[in-house]
Input
Amino acid sequence: MATIAAGVTISSTDLNNDSTGASSEALSVSLSDQLTVLGNHYSYVVAVNATSSVFLGQANHSKSYVLLYNTSTTTAETIQIELADGDNDVMLLGAGEFAFFPWSATHDLYADAATGTPVLEVRLYQSAA
Output
Protein backbone atom coordinates (compact mmCIF):
# COMPACT_ATOMS: atom_id res chain seq x y z
CA MET A 1 0.00 0.00 0.00
CA ALA A 2 1.19 3.50 -0.82
CA THR A 3 -0.14 6.91 0.13
CA ILE A 4 -0.11 10.10 -1.92
CA ALA A 5 -0.36 13.44 -0.13
CA ALA A 6 -2.29 15.61 -2.60
CA GLY A 7 -2.89 19.30 -2.05
CA VAL A 8 -3.77 22.48 -3.84
CA THR A 9 -3.57 26.10 -2.76
CA ILE A 10 -5.37 28.87 -4.63
CA SER A 11 -4.83 32.48 -3.63
CA SER A 12 -5.28 35.97 -5.02
CA THR A 13 -5.10 39.45 -3.55
CA ASP A 14 -6.99 41.19 -6.37
CA LEU A 15 -9.80 38.85 -7.40
CA ASN A 16 -13.25 40.47 -7.62
CA ASN A 17 -15.83 38.66 -5.53
CA ASP A 18 -18.80 39.29 -7.83
CA SER A 19 -19.54 39.63 -11.55
CA THR A 20 -19.87 43.43 -11.40
CA GLY A 21 -16.41 43.92 -9.97
CA ALA A 22 -17.90 46.24 -7.37
CA SER A 23 -15.65 45.06 -4.59
CA SER A 24 -12.48 43.12 -4.22
CA GLU A 25 -11.40 40.63 -1.60
CA ALA A 26 -8.46 38.38 -0.98
CA LEU A 27 -8.98 34.73 -1.88
CA SER A 28 -7.25 31.94 -0.02
CA VAL A 29 -8.27 28.29 -0.38
CA SER A 30 -6.11 25.35 0.64
CA LEU A 31 -7.17 21.70 0.38
CA SER A 32 -5.23 18.53 1.06
CA ASP A 33 -5.93 14.83 1.41
CA GLN A 34 -4.14 11.53 1.89
CA LEU A 35 -4.96 9.24 -1.06
CA THR A 36 -4.46 5.49 -0.82
CA VAL A 37 -2.88 3.69 -3.76
CA LEU A 38 -3.40 -0.09 -3.64
CA GLY A 39 -2.93 -0.87 -7.33
CA ASN A 40 -0.54 -0.11 -10.14
CA HIS A 41 0.95 3.26 -10.94
CA TYR A 42 2.14 4.48 -14.33
CA SER A 43 4.06 7.45 -15.65
CA TYR A 44 4.55 8.14 -19.35
CA VAL A 45 4.42 10.88 -21.97
CA VAL A 46 2.23 11.12 -25.07
CA ALA A 47 2.94 13.25 -28.15
CA VAL A 48 -0.48 14.71 -28.94
CA ASN A 49 -1.53 15.79 -32.44
CA ALA A 50 -4.70 16.76 -34.34
CA THR A 51 -5.95 13.15 -34.39
CA SER A 52 -8.03 12.38 -31.31
CA SER A 53 -6.70 9.20 -29.70
CA VAL A 54 -7.09 7.22 -26.48
CA PHE A 55 -4.35 7.82 -23.92
CA LEU A 56 -6.12 6.09 -20.99
CA GLY A 57 -8.29 3.07 -21.75
CA GLN A 58 -10.98 2.24 -19.21
CA ALA A 59 -10.73 -1.51 -19.87
CA ASN A 60 -7.20 -1.54 -18.46
CA HIS A 61 -7.81 0.36 -15.23
CA SER A 62 -9.94 0.68 -12.11
CA LYS A 63 -10.71 3.84 -10.11
CA SER A 64 -7.56 5.94 -10.18
CA TYR A 65 -6.06 9.33 -9.45
CA VAL A 66 -4.71 10.99 -12.59
CA LEU A 67 -2.22 13.81 -13.06
CA LEU A 68 -2.08 15.37 -16.55
CA TYR A 69 0.48 18.02 -17.49
CA ASN A 70 0.85 19.85 -20.81
CA THR A 71 4.64 20.24 -20.95
CA SER A 72 4.57 22.66 -23.89
CA THR A 73 5.85 26.22 -23.47
CA THR A 74 4.20 27.38 -26.72
CA THR A 75 0.97 29.25 -25.92
CA ALA A 76 -0.90 27.95 -28.98
CA GLU A 77 -0.22 24.29 -28.11
CA THR A 78 -3.28 23.37 -26.08
CA ILE A 79 -4.46 19.83 -25.35
CA GLN A 80 -8.15 18.94 -25.42
CA ILE A 81 -9.15 16.06 -23.09
CA GLU A 82 -12.29 14.25 -24.29
CA LEU A 83 -14.61 11.36 -23.35
CA ALA A 84 -15.08 10.28 -26.96
CA ASP A 85 -13.19 10.59 -30.24
CA GLY A 86 -13.41 14.30 -31.15
CA ASP A 87 -16.40 14.94 -28.87
CA ASN A 88 -17.51 15.38 -25.25
CA ASP A 89 -14.72 17.78 -24.28
CA VAL A 90 -14.09 17.82 -20.55
CA MET A 91 -11.02 20.04 -20.22
CA LEU A 92 -8.56 22.16 -22.14
CA LEU A 93 -4.97 22.23 -20.88
CA GLY A 94 -3.00 25.26 -21.99
CA ALA A 95 0.78 25.29 -22.23
CA GLY A 96 2.21 24.57 -18.78
CA GLU A 97 -1.20 23.76 -17.25
CA PHE A 98 -2.02 20.62 -15.28
CA ALA A 99 -4.99 18.78 -13.80
CA PHE A 100 -5.18 16.28 -10.93
CA PHE A 101 -8.46 14.43 -10.53
CA PRO A 102 -10.09 11.14 -9.51
CA TRP A 103 -11.05 9.03 -12.54
CA SER A 104 -13.74 6.35 -12.32
CA ALA A 105 -12.33 4.44 -15.33
CA THR A 106 -15.81 4.09 -16.82
CA HIS A 107 -14.88 5.96 -20.04
CA ASP A 108 -11.79 6.04 -22.20
CA LEU A 109 -9.92 9.35 -22.11
CA TYR A 110 -8.87 10.86 -25.47
CA ALA A 111 -6.56 13.76 -26.29
CA ASP A 112 -5.99 15.94 -29.31
CA ALA A 113 -4.30 19.22 -30.17
CA ALA A 114 -5.45 21.91 -32.58
CA THR A 115 -1.90 23.20 -33.18
CA GLY A 116 1.52 21.60 -33.04
CA THR A 117 2.44 18.42 -31.18
CA PRO A 118 2.46 19.22 -27.47
CA VAL A 119 3.58 16.54 -25.05
CA LEU A 120 1.14 15.33 -22.40
CA GLU A 121 2.71 13.89 -19.26
CA VAL A 122 0.42 11.27 -17.69
CA ARG A 123 0.69 9.84 -14.18
CA LEU A 124 -1.89 7.35 -12.97
CA TYR A 125 -2.29 5.85 -9.49
CA GLN A 126 -4.90 3.08 -9.12
CA SER A 127 -6.78 3.27 -5.82
CA ALA A 128 -7.65 -0.46 -5.85
CA ALA A 129 -5.49 -3.53 -6.44
